Amino acid sequence: MTRTPVNVTVTGAAGQIGYALLFRIASGQLLGQDTPVRLKLLEIAPALKAAEGTAMELDDCAFPLLSGIDITDDPNVAFDGVNVALLVGARPRTKGMERGDLLEANGGIFKPQGEAINAHAADDVRVLVVGNPANTNALIAQSHAPDVPADRFTAMTRLDQNRAYTQLARKLGVTVNDIRKLVIWGNHSATQYPDLFHAEVNGKNAAEAVNDQAWIENDFIPTVAKRGAAIIEARGASSAASAANAAIDHIYDWVNGTPEGQWVSAGVVSDGSYGTPEGLITSFPVTSTGGKYEIVQGLEIDAFSRAKIDASNAELAEERDAVKALGLI
Ligand code: NAD
Ligand code: LMR
């Protein structure tokens, strides 16, 4: 392999998403089959041994594209020279924890990680935040990396998009390959808005193809928006393989570009498009060309969609105000 390896940092590497993600990265699915990778695993000290165990298994796969693995509990080491950063590790909500406590605990993780990215990352660094609350954690990290272009910080809503594809395909008796431009607006939370009004099914408008507003409002949107909770209920643990899969999709498309005529969903820094508060990291329809995600412009937003998008962004603005009040941004 003659190409210089791409440095990929995964935080929370010993967690369940980490376990589902690392082998796919090392096998070439994140960046492509001609790109060698060097993995940098960041964990907290008590989980370093488990991360070492995962690294042993990675060794035992003899992946041709895997040029090395570093394991550390120091963000300054983990983000040194990083090209792709997957911020997965986060503090889950535990019993008795208020929303403010959760935001504060995560601030303690994403502030130093943002600072370390600012100080040590490669010039082309791209960051995807998976750890919840993903959009606001991304905002915290981004606000502590003033030397990194803000558009390099993104939050994951691709899992929500993938969930929406399957729900729509089932409803219409088509396959996911027949669907295009089905995207998520807003927060990765129960207020998110999966948008059928701009989506297409075999070239036809998806909302028209469904022709059932009650199903859209009372079934499709809540099923997609509450799928994370339904998985937790069923599995006794939050989604892991599907989250890892979505992270792969998000980075692969960012680096390699989205197919002609296709849109995807990503939480990106708002430039004020569609009346969304500037500076929030919120999900939009985006395309990627030349390694850059750009917000799709010029879409007409009807009153139904407007209300849904505004409600989700209002929730994000509240989260932003809460972390501001805590001095985290
Ligand atoms: P997990 O608890 O199995 O693993 C999290 C790991 O992060 C643990 O190994 C923990 O030691 C580590 N960690 C904690 N603090 C850290 C720090 N400061 N630095 C480095 N590592 C640290 O959780 P999981 O199932 O892998 O999920 C990870 C996160 O992803 C959660 O916040 C979850 O809610 C979120 N998630 C997001 C989406 C999405 O679509 N955006 C989907 C699923 C899960
Ligand atoms: C998911 O969407 O599966 C995760 O964000 C888990 C959750 O808490 O909803």
Automatic annotation (TrEMBL):
Positions of the Lactate/malate dehydrogenase C-terminal domain: 157-324
Domain of life the protein comes from: Bacteria
Assigned keywords, A-Z: NAD, Oxidoreductase, Tricarboxylic acid cycle
Chain residues that bind substrate: 93, 99, 132, 163
Active site: 188
InterPro entries assigned: L-lactate/malate_DH (IPR001557), Lactate/malate_DH_C (IPR022383), Lactate/malate_DH_N (IPR001236), Lactate_DH/Glyco_Ohase_4_C (IPR015955), Malate_DH_AS (IPR001252), Malate_DH_type2 (IPR010945), NAD(P)-bd_dom_sf (IPR036291)
Enzyme Commission number, as recorded: 1.1.1.37
CDD domains, alphabetized: MDH_chloroplast-like
Catalytic activity: (S)-malate + NAD(+) = oxaloacetate + NADH + H(+)
Any one Gene Ontology molecular-function term assigned to this protein's record: L-malate dehydrogenase (NAD+) activity
Domain Lactate/malate dehydrogenase N-terminal per the UniProt entry, residue ranges: 7-146
Enzyme class: oxidoreductase
Entries under Pfam families matching the protein: Ldh_1_C (PF02866), Ldh_1_N (PF00056)
Positions bound to NAD(+): 12-18, 106, 113, 130-132
Reported function: Catalyzes the reversible oxidation of malate to oxaloacetate.
Cross-referenced NCBIfam families: MalateDH-SF1, PRK05442.1
Family: Belongs to the LDH/MDH superfamily. MDH type 2 family.
Protein's UniProt name: Malate dehydrogenase
Protein species of origin: Kibdelosporangium philippinense
